[in-house]
Amino acid sequence: MTAAATRQDLDRVTAIIEEKGYRPHPIPGAQRVAIGVTGNTEPINPVLFENLPGVLEVISVSHPYKLVGREAKPEDTIVRVGGVGIGGGSFVVIAGPCAVESPERTLAVARAVKEAGAHILRGGAFKPRTSPYSFQGMGKAGLEILAAARRETGLPVVSEAMDEASLELVVEYCDMIQIGARSMQNFPLLRRCGRTSKPVLLKRGMAATVEELLMAAEYILAEGNYNVVLCERGIRTFSDHCRNTLDLAAVLTVQRLSHLPIIIDPSHATGRRHKVIPMARAGAAVGADGVMIEVHQNPGNALSDGVQAVMPAELAQLMAQLPAILPLTGRRLAEMLAIGA
Amino acid sequence: MTAAATRQDLDRVTAIIEEKGYRPHPIPGAQRVAIGVTGNTEPINPVLFENLPGVLEVISVSHPYKLVGREAKPEDTIVRVGGVGIGGGSFVVIAGPCAVESPERTLAVARAVKEAGAHILRGGAFKPRTSPYSFQGMGKAGLEILAAARRETGLPVVSEAMDEASLELVVEYCDMIQIGARSMQNFPLLRRCGRTSKPVLLKRGMAATVEELLMAAEYILAEGNYNVVLCERGIRTFSDHCRNTLDLAAVLTVQRLSHLPIIIDPSHATGRRHKVIPMARAGAAVGADGVMIEVHQNPGNALSDGVQAVMPAELAQLMAQLPAILPLTGRRLAEMLAIGA
Amino acid sequence: MTAAATRQDLDRVTAIIEEKGYRPHPIPGAQRVAIGVTGNTEPINPVLFENLPGVLEVISVSHPYKLVGREAKPEDTIVRVGGVGIGGGSFVVIAGPCAVESPERTLAVARAVKEAGAHILRGGAFKPRTSPYSFQGMGKAGLEILAAARRETGLPVVSEAMDEASLELVVEYCDMIQIGARSMQNFPLLRRCGRTSKPVLLKRGMAATVEELLMAAEYILAEGNYNVVLCERGIRTFSDHCRNTLDLAAVLTVQRLSHLPIIIDPSHATGRRHKVIPMARAGAAVGADGVMIEVHQNPGNALSDGVQAVMPAELAQLMAQLPAILPLTGRRLAEMLAIGA
Amino acid sequence: MTAAATRQDLDRVTAIIEEKGYRPHPIPGAQRVAIGVTGNTEPINPVLFENLPGVLEVISVSHPYKLVGREAKPEDTIVRVGGVGIGGGSFVVIAGPCAVESPERTLAVARAVKEAGAHILRGGAFKPRTSPYSFQGMGKAGLEILAAARRETGLPVVSEAMDEASLELVVEYCDMIQIGARSMQNFPLLRRCGRTSKPVLLKRGMAATVEELLMAAEYILAEGNYNVVLCERGIRTFSDHCRNTLDLAAVLTVQRLSHLPIIIDPSHATGRRHKVIPMARAGAAVGADGVMIEVHQNPGNALSDGVQAVMPAELAQLMAQLPAILPLTGRRLAEMLAIGA
Fold it and tell me: Which ipTM score applies to this complex?
């Protein structure tokens, strides 16, 4: 309430609070009075009060998530993808080409990724592209190539779904569903993910707050699928030297608020090949539960996002450095079990 | 190229350009040499050159859109919705409740909106909500209510589609399809819009550049639907006194680059009732092709976004002020023809 | 407090509040308890509580400004510059070259600006430039040119001060001191402005919140100078089609929170000549108390920021349009009295 | 040029380029012609061409910095502060209280910081505060306390200067001058720093691009002071879970473009105590040349920014972890020599 609010102004506000079935809690201060509200089951519409005489402002103080919050489940969730655990101290490396382009190239990268010691193979078959005239991915044929790469290498695979049709295919062919940054608030798609039996890798939207990321995950959990891994992949800011700005501290915020694992994607966050491995190291040092990295045999020829893909040798160098960093946050490289184990 | 680039460095770069089938154009300067590239049919992968000896940086200079650009079509597009023209000097006012909540309320608002002189009725039946526990809209029943309101008032109606299923219903019941900010880069949905016969109202994403907005429209035009109206509805910035920051100058940028009409949504841009009408006036003054405004009979009771809805009397006040502003940019209020005329 | 907080946790928190001399106000809710705090004379350090057992979060709810707030002074402040009033319904047009470049050019622009009907002449003699190798302004000689232009045209003049030395000169030669966006939080400079007798035009910093802008003004008022005009000149965002993003709704927020007048600067906000006049119209339509516009006789030759300067004919066109817009917000063009009147 | 540009349009543009004393370089493409410009000694005013018939857009392609660039000096600069080297593989830890509050507290923190193994003592005597009513620092008395702490511990000290007067004092009492984020574009102050003999710690502004940071450093170098250490301290974005968003990749961009060392400030970047040490580790892992950390004996009682200060034990833990991380980027902890050595 404003300093000038009258007794009548206060009574009017408390009357409305009670009329709504909530409980008013007046808190007199030296200069003005605040009125707390409890008993509401959903957010209160500020307009109920905002334009009343004597009201200075309406401030919301409670968190809206339930299933994703640490209050609901204090211990870390460990998400299993094939034989790999993510979270709870187990650090995962997901690697592979941005887009699946051909059986030969994909298999070559898959072998190199396996050789380097990564745990999960990534590869896009359905690509969200800014331009309708850019390469949009190989679709089902791409997923078949990924499945073949899994058969040969034993690596579980993750690929992006963009709509109902692609989701069905990704569920059929892959071990994990990726929901991209542009789809983070595609709520019908999130609900559908929540009704599948496959774990979901949910990327933060370019303009999403951490709270919105957690609420997007809540959509999936609310439908019964508790196997969600979050991914910080950079936000859009004025800073123009990289494609996006990796909001690394979001890892710490998520871990404080939620039990879900969170990994980082330094490839999309930077869009610059020479920055990927250093930023992956930074992610490990801050305490992320994993990294996702684009790898290509010959970055100069990639059909999509080649500029940010690293060579297998660079990935191998990262794998060699991780054991020095991970123990500092009580983590270790994920162990690979045979799929089906 | 860097100042220190050798003859050999230049030859290497020009060789690669030619090898790709493009044409190199060396431009010697006082301190360094630049090399222009032409003949490419799609964006050039910067990594082809970026890590070569002697290369300083790779800069892209061409625009990627074709159908939405003024180069393709110099004159303004006029999009017809029911009997209303948008663009080409015709200024449209779209108004109505954020969400369709009941037949009575919706009809009451529709009558008030018609009375105030607005041209198109808006109302959400499928609501994208941050929380899975918030009211998600009435769905098909909501669209039926909108259709009834159209029958009574004669106002064409627009409503948001979020996925394939809701799109089919919106196409069936409404005169215009709204694609919300969160769906601006839902490319499968954009393609589907492009294959319908209904005009599309495409809202700018919270973190989308103007170029990305135009490219999203390009997805729709590329499928054959040329009736797209763009909508600036605020972008996400650090500025925390409003829900979003209305990027009003984007109207001017779009009008310079594209022939498509563009309107503004001051309700979502500000999220504050007392700011809606002033910002709508600003939109008219800058030369937008229309405004979309949330109206409610009793903002305090609205199930969704009530805080930003104005009362019908406020809308009527805006309608009374517009004739003073519109001629300054060579515009006039849209004329209403009978639907079907 | 968290849902799991114990009686002991609450007692610990209230004890600390009391120990600090504040008053605790426990507010029990259905699931958890909140504790209000009053009696503090300055912001409370959240760390006092944040890491205590049972504490969920610490939220601040009071405004920190005193003199600039509407609570301190409900009626609009009218700032007088020469014979011109700014605020309280009086709309001012400030115009002139970005930088003072020569007596001839400056006088020519000053005459054109006067002719067009603008009220105050602007012109930079001390220029904050990103590069040390760019033209930095004519300094004292530039101020002398401005003073000569005032003598001839009768227009009061405003010019930017960057440090103690330039402030002394601006106070000596000009009618109003401009503090640029880069100096908005140059607190020693603000204090010095507060000790002068000249009105101050304070521009919002590129990354400043509205609250920070008001607090910067508070620095000036706190030293005894109550004649401050605020200026929204665009904020830095990801949106890359203009130099900055004009946060037009900030005008409305400032007017609700403060009694100080606020104008907009569409020249720096857009950095694009063809956008300046339309955005100035938008500022008038939203209810700003004035505009500041860069004008040049021959934009192609300007030494600084010429790209955004409009021609005198464009300014004249705006002046002709304003009378249609201003009455919509209860404003009128400022009247010019003879200086000294 | 546009696709529709005529021969005459091209000739007009090239004539203007030549008239200005520059050299035009027409580059014909399949659909349109680009015209390169060289021979200019400063940035070209785009408005010279932008509104000419046939001109599509004007794009700038050259970097404006000279002394700070790697082209001017390929090898890393090592800045010496007291006996400590920063850069060139030597990683520095700067630690101390946000503000100097009393001799006892400052000395206690200084001893703890020395004990933990940090290299340089920080402490603010002149504090830039958003509110004029907040504690503004102890001024000269604070610097005397810092000097006393140096005498006892042997640690060199750094403190912030805000204007000419405080700069003189900082130069007199301290080993390094800090220029804060709010002063990054206080160009008169930068010039004055450039004329001192003390090394400068230059923090990135909240809304500054990397290029603007480098240009600010250029102001200092241009005056003859080559001992500049840059500091990334977080930028302002929409992301609201931390005070700022640490743009960690900027470290890599700076190191690619410039020879100057760059450190990070995780305390101001996050504003959250529990995030400081993890983000400091991330900075080390990415390859920064040092970190600056706020330390307090009793964070709950600090007069300024206590919420983000860590305890000495947390600093000691970081010092113990750094030797595992630094070798991964070819770095080692800085060695401490006796001052004067």
Answer: 0.85
